[in-house]
Amino acid sequence: MANYHRNNVESLVLGHRPKSGGDGGHFRLWNSLSAASFRRLIFDAVSCGASSRYAERSTVDEEEQQRKTKASVRSEKLSDLLNIAEVEADAETKKKEERLEELKQLVKELQREGEEEEEEEEEEEEREGLVKVKRREGAAARVRLLAKEDLEVRGTLAMLGAIPPLVAMLDSRHDVAALVASLYALLNLGIGNDANKAAIVKVGSVEKMLKLIESPDGLDSSVSEAIVANFLGLSALDANKPIIGSSVAISFLVRTLKDLDNNTSPQAKQDAMRALYNLSIFPANVAFILETDLVVFLVNSIGDMEVTERTLAILSNVVSTREGRKAISAVPDSIPILVDVLNWTDSPECQEKASYILMVMAHKSYGDKQAMVEAGIGSSLLELSLLGTTLAQKRASRILEILRVDKGKQVSGNYGLGAAVSAPICGSSSACQKPDGGGKECYEEEEDMMSEEKKAVKQLVQQSLQNNMRKIVKRANLPQDIVPSDHFKTLTSSSTSKSLPF
């Protein structure tokens, strides 16, 4: 529009003739224009272009202003966030400083009470029969609470020196509350902190706890359970295992586990068993374990599903030594009990541990091999090698191999399957080398054995199922007519079984 007016004005001013229309009409328009009309045309043309440029500048200015406004808003938000973060950091720093100051004051109370301990003991007789709330008991209880769930606090308290005064409190034999408070405070300080575990043992806590155990006045049940819990926590560190194991701690834990007087809580029994497992990991401690009757107790405990898995775990450590294997073998019916565990299809962990124990015993002792064969281990191993976990399958296969081969000779005998599973030994045996061609027949029998492998596997599986059904019926006390019929027995024993090339 502006260009249109501008062109018309230029034409009028310069006297150009318009391109369209007749000449006369345009000259009449030129002549009829007055000065006022001419000025108006010029004003309109100039005003139109100016307003367009003004509108463009206004739009640019508005966008620039909006950008500046947004930038200002963002800057203010960032500043607010930085201020908030700074305030929170200051609050957190102040909170940490207050917590550190609280911990320092707590440790001072423990240390001050430790220094005043001798004076308090001299005045013990004068205060007899009176109840006095001691600050050190409160401080120890506070340490126990703060260290219960905060790993950082445990390290801070140890660095501030809280462990030595807490261990010194173990000398207060007649103050049960102080003993319990200090023992559980030490227990919580050692949770998840190996440095604290080592420091607790280094300052003599084990010796003091053993003195409490051997006290002629007896030991309160709450103190006894706290000591068991501490042995559990401290024995988790490898460096502490020989220190605790070489003391009378093992016999104390065994007494707690057996609990002949029924004064121990179930939790304390579990802690004692777990502590014994930790200690049995160190081979030298097995000798101290064998000085007690723990092995007999553990073997006879197999079958109690609450403790069987951990019982087998301890026996897995005990069987690593020669004396440990002898001790297990000496327990009446130990081999049949372990073989029976191989059939616990609902407890694969127990199957794995029992198979490990039997594997080690079979590898090291010929007498144990014979006992396993007599206990009918063959069917259990076959089923386990087919249906067990990967680890159990490997161990079962290894036991089968050990039982089948002994120094280059195959162990003959009945594997508890109702039929002989051993094949004639061929090769260098003099029995197979006969001048009338007996050796050739022996090799032919060996080939027949390989050709009948599938048949033997099927037979063994059927016999294994039959034996397992008998055991299930016996355990459930069901009528005997549920047992497979004679016809089924005839089918399962119709063919001659042979050794399997595991």
UniProtKB/TrEMBL annotation:
SMART domains xrefs: ARM
Start-end of each ARM repeat: 161-204
Keywords in alphabetical order: Repeat
InterPro entries for this protein: ARM-like, ARM-type_fold, ARM_PUB, Armadillo
Domain annotation U-box: ranges: 135-385
Domain of life: Eukaryota
Start-end of Acidic residues biased regions: 114-127
Keyword Mitochondrion found: no
Gene3D superfamilies: Leucine-rich Repeat Variant (1.25.10.10)
UniProt keyword Phosphoprotein present: no
Region (Disordered): 111-130
PROSITE patterns xref list: ARM_REPEAT (PS50176)
Protein name: U-box domain-containing protein 6
Organism: Cajanus cajan (Pigeon pea)
Source lineage: Eukaryota, Viridiplantae, Streptophyta, Embryophyta, Tracheophyta
